[in-house]
């Protein structure tokens, strides 16, 4: 039986309580609405806008930086958003250790830190093991949406998901072709005239046993 979990508001002290098991994020909300997960939410512009305009969908955001996490938690509370939760932790670790199989309908990863120095590339979130975890947590037909302004990371993230047999690529756009999004970093990068890369991959249906 599913054990209800309350992760809102999550304080740093509460996090260890949920770190030792995987849980279905749907249980957090007490309803069966689809859950979308954003990793590295920054100041939360995208997540809050989505939660406000799509009340029939639940949203969870994971953010490492305490100040951003607190800012988004405060903004969500002020707006009384019952379909939004934020968690302060390492996104890759939470996905791997805490998110249940087939529990997510859309995984959003926008402008993840590019770790541009070659010796730091291994710290990038989007690597082959991450795609395996994404395939595990997404329900059949679920989506991964990715954006970056970093050319080398764009090549890497597209290749990682193309190489994973659980995904089909369903969208790619670069520069002017890329539809405008609303994350804080996208707004800033567009003003600076940077080239933005966007990708979408669809999780293939699992073969029935
Ligand atoms: C470049 S910003 C992009 C923020 C947001 N996605 C946007 O597009 O406006 C990257 C964000 O990811 C967060 N971040 C970096 N590493 C992280 C990790 N391991 N787990 C969770 N968040 C992380 C950073 O604190 C920062 O808020």
Can you describe what's shown?
With 209 residues, the protein is an alpha/beta fold. The chain has one domain: Vaccinia Virus protein VP39 (Rossmann fold), CATH 3.40.50. Helix content is 33%, strand content 23%. The protein contains eight helices and seven strands. The protein has a seven-stranded mixed beta sheet, with helices on both faces. The longest helix is centred in the middle third of the chain and has 13 residues, at 66-78. It starts with 14 loop residues before the first helix and ends in a 6-residue tail after the last strand. The model is unreliable at 1-7 and 10-16 (pLDDT under 50). The structure holds S-adenosylmethionine (SAM). Residues 40-42, 62-65, 68, 90-92, 110-111, 113, 183-186 line the site of S-adenosylmethionine (SAM). The site of S-adenosylmethionine has 18 residues, from strand 2, helix 5 and helix 8.
CATH superfamily: Vaccinia Virus protein VP39
Give the structural class: alpha/beta
Q: Ligands in the structure?
A: S-adenosylmethionine
Shape: globular
Total domain count = 1
> What's the CATH class label?
Alpha Beta
The largest β sheet comes out as: 7 strands, mixed
* Order of strands in the sheet with most strands: 3-2-1-4-5-7-6
**Total strands:** 7
Indicate the percent of residues in helices: 25-40%
Kindly provide the radius of gyration, computed on alpha-carbon positions and rounded to a whole number of angstroms.
Answer: 16 Å
Distance between the termini: 22 Å
CATH topology: the name is: Rossmann fold
Q: How many helices does DSSP assign?
A: 8
SSE pattern, N- to C-terminal: HHEHEHEHEHEHEHE
Rounded mean pLDDT is 89
Strand content: 15-25%
Low-confidence stretches: 1-7, 10-16
CATH architecture: 3-Layer(aba) Sandwich
